[in-house]
Each structure stands twice: as C-alpha cells, then as structure tokens.
Write a structure and sequence with these properties.
Shape: elongated
Strand content: 25-35%
Radius of gyration: 45 Å
Number of helices: 5
Helix content: 10-25%
Strand order of the largest sheet: 1-2
Length: 279
Amino acid sequence: MVEPYDCSNCKESLYGKKYILKEEHPHCVQCYEALFSNNCEVCKLLIGCTSKDLSYKDRHWHSDCFLCSKCERSLVDRPFTTKDDLLMCTDCFANEYSAKCHACLKTIMPGTKKMEHKGNSWHENCFACNRCQQPIGTRSFVQKDLNNFCLPCYEKQFAQQCVHCKKPITTGGVNYRDMPWHKECFVCISCKQQLAGQRFTSRDDFAYCLDCFCNLFAKKCAYCTTSISGLGGSKYISFEQRQWHNDCFNCKKCSVSLVGRGFLTCKDDILCPDCGKDF
C-alpha cells in the first residue's frame, strides 16, 4: 500500500502533481502561492512560483516590472537607487538629482571625485587654473572674477608686491600711503609690532605704534612725567617750555584744577591765586 502524500494545507493528494516544500511541509502550487507568494509593486498581480521574485526592502517585483521609473529600462542585474520610493537607474538619478559641473555643466556621476568651493561643484579635471589650465586638485588657489587660479599663476598675473619684502601679496594686505604691504611686514619701525588694525602715527616717513612714538618723541608732563602724545585730539597745557596733561594741571597746594583759570608760579610749582597769596 502506497503511503499518502498530501498538501499540508488543503490535504489533496500530491501524487502526479507539482508541489513545493516549505519548511519540509509539502504544498500544492495553488496553496503555496495563496499562502506565501508576494504581489508585485507595479502590476499588483501575484508573483507565481514559476516567476522570478525580485525583492528590495520588503518590496517585490516581477522581473519584467523591475524597471527605472524614468527611462523604463530593466534594472535586473544593473545598479539602481530609489527616490521617494521610486526605482531609478543610476544614470537617471544622476541626471535628475546629482550636482552639475560648474565648468562643463555636465552631471557629476555618483562615485566620481567631486571638487567643491563656495557652493559650486566641479569634476576633478574641470577644477583647473584659468591661466595654465592645469587641475588644481588640493593645491592652494585664489578665486578672482569667478575664475580660479593656482597660486603661482595668480601671483604672476595679479598680485601686488609688498614694498618691504618685494614678495607677492596673495591675501589681505595693507595699503599705506598708496603702497601695498603684507600685514606681517607693516610693523612699527622701533618695536616691530604689527600695525594692521592698530592706531599708529608716522615721523620722517617711518611708522610707529603709539607707545614707541610717545616714548621716543612725545613731550613729558611736568607733573607726572609720563608722555603727552597730543594724538587723537587729546589736550594739554603748555607754559614756559613746560607741558602738563589737562588732568595734571592743578594747584600744588589745594589741587584745584587750573585749566582755563589764572595761576601763579613759585619756582617749579603752579598755584591758584588764593594759595598764591601765602607766598
């Protein structure tokens, strides 16, 4: 007697019929498809046992339905990606969404090297010096009038020369008396401190920081003996070859300010008229 061999679901005999094993349990084709087969994302029809089931992220397609949503070419055995749940071949995705080269205006394909600067993108070989046409790569460059120049070409074509060191000024720089300087070259002639962004003055065509200028050339206050710069509109009192800061021009005895008032002198001292009566 032949041992029965039935479908695990409908119990019909499988002798002489096609069947499929699922976890070692036999199923007739109809039951297997009803229980385990998937519906195609595109045509919504069942993907039968005799059809190839292509799956991606829990979604399924017939092989004939697995197409680029833009150009409708088959994606079977081809690289693809998705955008808003739509399948796209890499060519269509690149044309639609990838950056365009700022120089040749062609698409920069995914996976190829891309150069970027200030929101613009280039193919590696298109990111080239406008003068020598050599690719810039990772070298230093300068952008002028929307064109890129490698540093040697920029210096030859555009850069001013520093009046101090005679070398090109490629970034920043200082203009003083219509002459260009590197920031690091424009320094106090005495202490060598950089003067860019600082208050300074000059004497005999040499630039000085305020401290050095005051120490070297400024008059000294007769009372506190510190320098009177006279720069920036600061006021001081001058009398008989002596000078005072406004705040230092006070009566020697009562310390009242004598600015704008009459005063008397007694040897090296200055006195208000009231205190001067005692002498």
